[in-house]
Amino acid sequence: MTRGAITAVKSVRSSLRYLLADIIGDDDCEPPFLPEGLSEAAASAVSEGIHLLMEYQSASYAQLYVDRIKRFVRRSDVDAAMLCEIARLLAARMAYEDPIRIAQLKLLDLAMGRTGGRESDDLRRFRLEELIGVLPQALADSLLTGFEQIGWLGRRRLKLRFSIRSRLAVRRLRTMAGLRRWRLQSVRYGEERAWVERWLHMIARALDKQPSAAPAIIATATMIHGQGDGYRQGLADWHAIINGLAKPTFDGVLPMPDLAAAIAEARAAAMPDPRQVALKRTIAQIRARALSVGPNSDAAE
After folding, report:
1. How far apart are CA 93 and CA 195, in angstroms?
2. pTM, whole model, 2 decimals?
3. Closest Cα partner for 87 from 250, 200, 211?
4. Which of 250, 263, 249 is nearest to 293 (CA)?
5. pLDDT band at residue 56 under the 50/70/90 scheme
6. How far is CA 185 from the centre of its chain?
7. How far is it, in rounded angstroms, from Cα 290 to Cα 295?
8. Are 140 and 186 in contact (CB under 8 A)?
């Protein structure tokens, strides 16, 4: 079994272990230990991530975060600054902004006494599949199938108000936030877990194949944020850049000696366009230029 396959198996086992801990309530609320060998700055960044994810989900979820960080600790090609950036962006992505999270944050506003002005009322626009995606997989699958059959998926947009202005509104927030218990069984979590693992895999491949491109790969995490059409657009653009430029370079089929510059050029072309016309054209141009130069032995396996 290859090193990549072994890593993938361990990742799946870790995710299942932490999912089981959340389902059965086997979570003692004690924060996980920091990995050994962290610099002071990295320890601070990882500690912040741990506390964020404990508040977001659970101690076992924070442990999954720590285990993911451990993949890059003690690597000679990962300095403190790079590890801090991985830790920061990984925590932000693992605390993705689903309706459950937005409800949690509004309830935090209430607990902190921030009940006046614009902070007390928040209107968000979601795609229908996003709202269904917070439900457990078994229930969500049947709903998604039904809505797909009537042509609503990808077309329907729904506005949802998150408010703390009334007791009824707060009760609704608590109901939504209560879905946290089933978050790790949801459709959305499955998608986010797959994305995080691929992002981390691409960072590792960059470090092995073209270390100068690693910071650019790490920074691509900022392409994905929020909810609704903006979130889906960022996700689609990320996959287009990774599939069109990064992966073929690491696979040795695209001679790209400066992958970081290519990623920057592609990101600059990304527009809020579901068809991705400008982005696809730019990626095609970058690939054509690279292939016209000829193979690069440094990019090969």
Report:
1. 9
2. 0.85
3. 200
4. 249
5. very high
6. 16
7. 8
8. yes
300 dihedral zone (left: phi>0; alpha: psi -120 to 50; beta): beta
Q: Read off the DSSP letter of residue 117.
A: G
| Residue with tokens 């442990």, as numbered in its chain | 63
What pLDDT digit, counting tens, does each position of 214-263 carry? 999 999 999 999 999 999 999 999 999 999 999 999 999 999 999 999 99
B/e letters for 57-83, b = 16+ CB within 10 Å, e = fewer, are bbbbbbbbbbbbbebbbeeeebeeebb
Q: Which residues pair with 122 in a beta bridge?
A: 162
Residue 265 has which token pair? Answer: 């050029």
Q: Is the CB of residue 65 less than 8 Å from the CB of residue 94? A: yes
How far apart (Å, rounded) are the C-alpha atoms in residues 230 and 126? 10
- Residue 1: DSSP 8-state: -
pLDDT tens digit sequence for 118-156: 667 889 999 999 999 999 888 998 888 888 888 888 788
What is the separation, in whole angstroms, between the first and last Cα of the chain?
A: 17
DSSP state of 126: E
DSSP H stretches of helix in the chain:
3-24, 40-56, 59-70, 80-94, 99-111, 128-132, 137-149, 167-177, 187-209, 214-219, 228-241, 247-251, 259-269, 277-293
Query: How do beta strands 121-127 and 157-163 pair?
Result: antiparallel
Q: What is the DSSP letter of 48?
A: H
* Max Cα–Cα distance, the chain, nearest Å: 67
Tell me the C-alpha distance between 147 and 251, whole Å.
39
**DSSP line for 202-214:** HHHHHHHH-GGGH
